[in-house]
């Protein structure tokens, strides 16, 4: 079998070679060490045995490790080079990491929380972070790349087997790092094209909830009243809350203006009991109409 992606064979071969060399020397060195312990013990060898000035031996144990390291480097380099050469015609998908969720944007503007790709077609992921350092990792595809704020990075692959595969963040990115999970769905090309033009929003889902999901808001703010990283959205609208503003406590009523300010300036008025600095500004990500949808949804909770 070729594996779930075009990189599986090269990566696995490199690891097998490195593991094989490591096991060989683990067993070999351990066996020699045990032999020397028994053969040259004080009881069997009262007078210490020393080897001095053996040029051939010194050359041997210098050249052999050098050759082995170069062999491992070569296989690693041969496996890595294709990962940075994106083929022409690869489908561009924008992959966005933020605390603590992934979102994916396709060429036609469609967004999803899971990565959906066609079978046997190269896909290029343009990697962006909205806050801190993340790392997009798809174990079954043998690919992983850092997602660095302020730096453009990318990765590509061709999925070779239908199915669903785990997608993780492989870089510790804060309190709920372990919740930053998603899926890769590999579909037949015709099914993928059909999915691409369909709406993933259920007919009975509030537009505001859809915006919250697409932007990873419910990873930090619950909808049922439970406390996560940020205040729950349930029952907050119209109620009085204590906030910290410029280091001072004050009470305010949660209204349209406060929600708008919290989205655009999240650290201006932080609800007491919650840590500042965890939420980024969504001024560049959310349009005014999207904010209005969010406010209307929160009003109804």
Structural class: alpha+beta
Low-confidence stretches: none
Gyration radius over CA? 28 Å
Roughly what fraction of the amino acids lie in strands? 15-25%
Residues in helices, as a percent range: 25-40%
Shape: elongated
Taking the sheet with the most strands, its summary is: 5 strands, mixed
Strand order of the largest sheet: 3-2-1-5-8
Contiguous helical run count: 6
Q: List how many beta strands DSSP finds.
A: 13
Average pLDDT, all residues:
87
SSE pattern, N- to C-terminal:
HHEEEEEEEEEEHHEEHEH
Q: End-to-end span in angstroms? A: 51 Å
Characteristics:
five-stranded mixed sheet, 32% helix, 13 strands, alpha+beta, 301 residues
Blueprint (SSEs and pairs):
Layout: H1 8-39, H2 55-80, E1 91-98, E2 101-105, E3 111-112, E4 115-118, E5 122-129, E6 134-138, E7 143-147, E8 153-158, E9 163-169, E10 181-187, H3 189-196, H4 207-214, E11 240-245, E12 248-253, H5 256-264, E13 270-271, H6 288-299
